Amino acid sequence: FQTGSDAYDIRLTTGVTSTTAANLTFNNVNTGITVEAGDNSSHTIGIFGGNVILQGNLAVAHNGSGTLTINQPITGSGFGVTKTGTGLMKLDGANTYSGATQINGGILSFGSLAAYGSTSGVSVGASGTVGLGVGSTGTTTHYEFADLVSLFNTNSLAGFSLNAASGVAIDTSASSFSVLNQSGAGPDAALTGTRSLTKIGTKTLQLNVTNTYTGATIIKEGGLNVGAGLNGGKLSPDSTITVESGASFGVNLQRNAAQGTDFSSAPITGGGGFEQIGSGITTLNAANSYSGTTTVAGGMLKYEGSASLALTSGNLIVGGGGVVGLSENLTRDRGTGSNQIQWNGSGGFAAIGADRTVSLDGGGNVQWNSGNFVPAGGSLILGHEAATHTVIFTNNINFAGGSRTIEVGDGAAAIDAVVSG
């Protein structure tokens, strides 16, 4: 933005980052910031300094799919901010404007306590969602999880007033966040009621208690995991899960978990991915249609019922000792693209319900430590203690002159695995 003290009305149509330390002033003539529908760029105001000065109320109409971030303080006595549109807006500066904040649509997130600042109160309409930043970065003070529980469950956080249909977002832009690491983490840390929960911020959020809220779960950024490698963590089966592009929903449990019991009974949708992380068995049994990457990094990801790898068009990554429990034959090329498979460590397959075949690249030769197959030092795993039938690996394997390991899990079948190539 140009230097000087002029007032502006801003319409953002492509990715914009302010490159000067000039102040940006809004008054009763030049009142707002607009991000058009169809704009998928992210925009940042104030990254190099310069305050946003209010000499009138600021209206932000954000209908794009990217994020609008204001990094520097918004100042101004007696004036406030109104957010409309479906987009995501983040306030990260130490704001001192003293007027009211109204969220009538989309998401407005306060990245820290300082971002809430001196506003005379935050009101959230039925179509709006308010976000609170958690985690830790240096000396910045973020919200406690107890604040989120008060806001989400009982609408009782001082300074905030939510409509019964308003949503709440958890912002992990500062750092990854686990409920287990917070004081008093237990039943009182569970999220209840009917509100929707949105996960924003690129870092991971781990929910490690039994949450019973029935509103939608929307993962816009980063990862949301049920569990943190232990036995706690659960979402209501009545909470639908949407994972947006670039984000992921994960299960990180030592115990076994199942769709419809430990998380949504409805299909998981969206352009994002799914991660099986823990050492337990996670069963998918709905016709999930998410189109992002499926990562199996531990335990077993088991397919049953209507669940099918064929319905998820993203890449399949196997490693960390993870096993894919197949309810159908698997035919995929190796690679990093859609409908392809790659190994980044030890991993493999098991058969569920009937004998299953695995055929890579149309059944041709595969070479260890080459072409996205098992890397050096990794093992090809065939079978699992929970497998019911025989898994048949149809490719011829070139060991590339090395000593390689094929691990066979001992399941219910008399023959757990066959390498027929």
Write the layout of secondary structure elements.
Layout: E1 10-12, E2 24-26, E3 32-35, E4 43-45, E5 52-54, E6 58-62, E7 67-70, E8 74-75, E9 81-84, E10 88-91, E11 101-103, E12 106-110, H1 113-116, E13 122-124, E14 128-133, H2 145-154, E15 160-162, E16 167-171, E17 177-178, E18 197-200, E19 205-207, E20 217-219, E21 223-230, E22 241-243, E23 248-253, E24 257-258, E25 273-276, E26 281-284, E27 294-296, E28 300-303, E29 316-318, E30 322-326, E31 330-334, E32 340-343, E33 347-351, E34 356-360, E35 366-367, E36 379-382, E37 391-393, E38 397-398, E39 405-408, E40 417-419
Parallel strand pairs: 1-3, 2-5, 3-6, 4-7, 5-8, 6-9, 7-10, 9-11, 10-12, 11-13, 12-14, 13-15, 14-16, 16-18, 17-19, 18-20, 19-21, 20-22, 21-23, 23-25, 24-26, 25-27, 26-28, 27-29, 28-30, 29-32, 30-33, 31-32, 31-34, 33-36, 34-37, 35-38, 36-39, 37-40
Treating each run of at least 4 consecutive H or I residues as one helix, how many helices? Answer: 2
Unreliably modeled segments: 1-8, 13-19
User: How many domains, as an integer?
Assistant: 2
What is the mean pLDDT? 91
- Class of secondary structure makeup: mainly beta
Percent strand equals 35-45%
How does the major sheet shape up?
Answer: 12 strands, parallel
The Cα radius of gyration reads 25 Å
- Helix % is under 10%
What is the end-to-end distance?
64 Å
| Strand tally | 40
How would you describe the shape? Answer: elongated
Task: Give, in spatial order, the strands making up the sheet with the most strands.
Answer: 17-19-21-23-25-27-29-32-31-34-37-40
Could you state the oligomeric state of the chains shown? single chain
